[in-house]
Amino acid sequence: MSDEVGFISMAGAKAEGEAPQIGIGMLGYAFMGKAHANAFKKIPYIMYPPVAIPRLVAICGRNEEAVSEAARRYGYEKYYTDWRKMLEDPEIQVFDNGGPNDMHAEPCIAAAQAGKHVFSEKPLARSAEEARRMLDAVQQAGVKHQVAFNYRFVPAVVQARKLIESGALGRIYHWRAVYLQEWGMDPKMPTSWRFQKPIAGSGALGDLGAHIIDLARFLVGEPTRVMGMTQNWLKERPSGSDPSQMVPSDVDDAFVALFDFEGGALGTMEASRFAQGHKNYNSFEINAQNGSIRFNLERLNELEVFWANEEPRETRGFHTALISEGFHPYWSNWWPHGHMIGWEHSFIHEFNHFFGAIVHNTDVAPYGATFVDGYRNAVICDAIVASAASGRAVDIKY
């Protein structure tokens, strides 16, 4: 395992001399803004010795009072209310886009054209066509690019990929994944951009489904065909500005889909924001020739494993591996075994990987999700929507 851990930790290897500073300009300051800023501040002393020191140059948002407070809270040197002005700042090398989905394409394209490396929250775009324009821009500019599919950087998920890469599982037959939350069920909850198709593009599909689609591609490979269904149960919600007024809620509340994969595996995926009792239940299972593996984000330090030929056969069954040893992915940077890490730590691993690719001019792929992955993810999401509309299976073509 030592070689594997070295590969995973390569972005933490010390650069020649003192680690360089990388100037960060971040769009957005709410949920993801907090998660990203937390990662930037911890990287220098957790991923030690650091490959780079994030310098919090600027943060941007439309509400001056709120963004100025966010700058103070997170420790950014300055703030902007116009992302175009922020991208003119020569002290920014990395543009971090944590804005709503309708604010992904134009700012990311402009950042790439300005020579900034680009990191974008998921889903990359509201449609495959929009994602394609973003991919073309970063490729033409020659900048590094990464999409925030942070679950690729959970140690147990990386360990699952290592088992697959080693050949230990053999041929994969089944992929099944669900991502379930309950927060969208309250009909009295004021609407947000996540329920508005012009802004979000889709609902549970892009918000939650994009994650398990990415994990399927990361662990099993490319899907080739999909049969999908979507459902919208609450077609209007109270306005965010005036709760006495009802406004359209025109995105999917849930989806289910069946997949064929290139290697012959069959897959099922489901996401819902109407799953009572589930807080953040991102779970997958892989059944293969020599065994099976299961993962649940709500128990993210654990990986359940079954080996078909395990002895003695009388006690053969799934067993839980606690992914917390020093030889497990990323754990050399953390605590003694058994001292758990959490959801927010995936962002530390993710950004450290991105900074390593910038400093050492290495590929973000295959462990990091690039805009290629973001584009392909959007193609798959579009195919699910098209299948749901037609009632027929749709071939996935990039």
3D structure, described in words:
This protein has 398 residues and is an alpha/beta fold. It folds into two domains: 2-150, Rossmann fold (3-Layer(aba) Sandwich), CATH 3.40.50.720; 152-359 and 366-390, Dihydrodipicolinate Reductase, domain 2 (2-Layer Sandwich). It has eleven helices and 17 strands. It has helices at 2-8, 31-46, 64-74, 83-87, 105-113, 128-141, 155-166, 197-200, 204-219, 345-360, 371-390; strands at residues 21-27, 53-60, 78-80, 94-97, 117-120, 145-147, 172-180, 223-231, 236-238, 246-248, 254-261, 266-272, 281-288, 291-296, 302-307, 319-322, 394-395. Strands 16-15-14-13-7-12-11-8-17 form a nine-stranded mixed sheet. Helix 3 links the parallel strand 2 (53-60) and strand 3. Helix 2 packs across helix 10 (345-360), helix 5 (105-113) packs parallel to helix 6 and helix 9 (204-219) packs across helix 11 (371-390). It is globular, with a radius of gyration of 21 Å. The two termini are 35 Å apart. Residues 1-16 have low confidence and may be disordered.
